[in-house]
Amino acid sequence: MTDTGVPAIAEHLEDAIPDITKEIDTETAPVVVKKWRIWKNLFVICIAWTLQFTAFNGISNLQSSLNAKGNVGMNSMAIIYAFLIFSSALLPNLMMSIFGMKWTIVIGQFGYLAFIAANLKPIPALMYPASVLVGLGGAVLWTSEGAYVTQIGILHAESKGKKPETGVTQFFGIFFACFQTSQIWGNLISYLVLQPTAKSKVHNEISTGPVVQRIFIKNVTNITRKDYQCGAGFNEKDFHSDRSAPVSKNLAFTLCYIYIGLAIASIIIIALLLDQRRSKTDSKSSIKAQLKNSLHHVASTFKHLRHLNQILLIPFTLWSGLEQTYIGAQFTKGFITCAVGIRYVGLVMIVYGVCNALSSFSFGHIAKHIGRIYCLMFAALIDYALIITMLLWVPRENQLWVLFILAGLWGVADGCWQTQIAATYGTIFTDNESAFSNFRLWESLGYVIAYVYTPRIRIRYAHIILLCVLTLSMICYTIIEIRERRKKKKVPEEEPSKSKDDIEATTATAL
């Protein structure tokens, strides 16, 4: 079995690589086959993303705690999103024009694999270059995914005789529901691997009002003590010198090897099972013409800012980066690791992942019935309540259940943000590739800003920043909603079908 498996894989790869210049004609393909291929491609992306980000999210959630020495973990995350800004504007359209969406995704996946592998020896010389690779690959990975899901969502809606945005919203809901489960599996793995043994559990913890005091015992004659605040009063500088017992190298290696295996499996799935896709204009052009067209798209990413709706979406897109950084870095460090220890980071974040996945799937369907604006208002109310609660509440070791509730509700809100912001970009802009480049560009800037200020300020100030950005985001999105409704009222009855055809011509390619 093993001997015949490798040649079979090699033969499949040899047949698949030429697909970069091939397309399947959906105009003549039977509808049944077309539908089957649409769903097959969606689920291939869902499975691959789940595996890929089970590994990446699992290791990322531990960066602020596991690789805290010299702030290597936080600096690495900042580098990732700084280069993601650069690559979002420059690389995605160029890469998709040359390699098509499928192989662009594969290329991006290798950057994530390099970062996960670098955690085997988390020193700046390895972590920082690997972070650059993730930053460069992340933009092409996510832009390709966004354009791919948008295209097959439109094709699905067409086969059902529905509006394009219905199919796009539904497919993004399914995708993010699967993708967000990566938080569950990644954190479950980290929790099980990092379970403390009797030998590694070497500290006592006691709570005294708003100040958590930890007594760290290194040996019977060497006892040190440090007072610091957890929760809104948490400061990385105060906590840096006295942290929980370090994770052993063997446990860290085990964790990394598991994540590396998942990342490799994700690459293989995309390479073998995903159909190639590209825009019709690219598929019928020479490589030289594609390069020229891609350079034009680089400029179009910035020209896209001429759209008022894009300007109005910037605060919301920044918010997406800020709020995800908060839950993955500040909440895990200032509320979980500080109050109950690093071993509970994975367990608490499992609840976040479960709620996130259920929320993503649910809002993908709910938005079709009640409208996107009401979903976003609901998510905003949840986050307002959570941020204010965390401003006032001080975590204690015997209140672990509160951390579960906070993480779960944050996951519910984030599931809404991820599906609805992505669907907004996919439906209000016909040039979806440039739109998604802007999406990742501004979201990445939100990550960078958050990772830069996270180690330097108390969490209460981060809460204030989140409240301000969320408020501005909701105001701007309300303006977008008003503009879009007015636009629909002015369009003649015949125009919607024409708009649908235009969207298909721009985004859909033959399966």
Structure description:
With 511 residues, this protein is mostly helical. It folds into two domains: 11-195 and 247-507, Growth Hormone, Chain: A; 203-240. The chain contains 19 helices and three strands. Strands 1-2-3 form a three-stranded antiparallel beta sheet, with helices on one face. β2 (211-219) and β3 (222-229) form a beta hairpin. α2 (31-60) packs parallel to α8, α5 (92-118) runs antiparallel to α10 and α7 (164-180) packs antiparallel against α16. The protein is globular, with a radius of gyration of 23 Å. The two termini are 32 Å apart. InterPro entries: Ion_channel_UNC-93, MFS_trans_sf, UNC-93_regulatory. The chain crosses the membrane at residues 42-60, 72-91, 103-120, 126-150, 171-194, 251-274, 341-361, 373-394, 400-417, 460-480. It is a multi-pass membrane protein.
Which labels suit this protein?
2 domains; about 75% helix; globular; UNC-93_regulatory; Growth Hormone, Chain: A; Ion_channel_UNC-93; three-stranded antiparallel β-sheet; disordered C terminus; UNC93-like protein; about 500 residues; mainly alpha; 3 strands; MFS_trans_sf
CATH first level of the largest domain: which class? Mainly Alpha
Mean pLDDT: 78
Helix content: over 70%
- The shape is globular
Radius of gyration: 23 Å
Which regions contain 5 or more consecutive residues with pLDDT less than 50?
1-33, 197-227, 241-245, 493-511
What order do the SSEs take from the amino end to the carboxyl end, as H and E?
A: HHHHHHHHEEEHHHHHHHHHHH
Total E-strand runs? 3
Q: Which architecture of the largest domain per CATH?
A: Up-down Bundle
Q: What is the count of helical runs?
A: 19
Strand content: under 5%
Query: What's the number of structural domains?
Result: 2
| Spatial order of strands in the largest sheet | 1-2-3
Termini separation (Å)?
Answer: 32 Å
Could you tell me the CATH topology label of the largest domain.
Growth Hormone, Chain: A
Sheet with most strands: 3 strands, antiparallel
Structural class: mainly alpha
Organism: Adineta steineri
InterPro entries: Ion_channel_UNC-93, MFS_trans_sf, UNC-93_regulatory
Transmembrane segments: 42-60, 72-91, 103-120, 126-150, 171-194, 251-274, 341-361, 373-394, 400-417, 460-480
Membrane topology: Multi-pass membrane protein
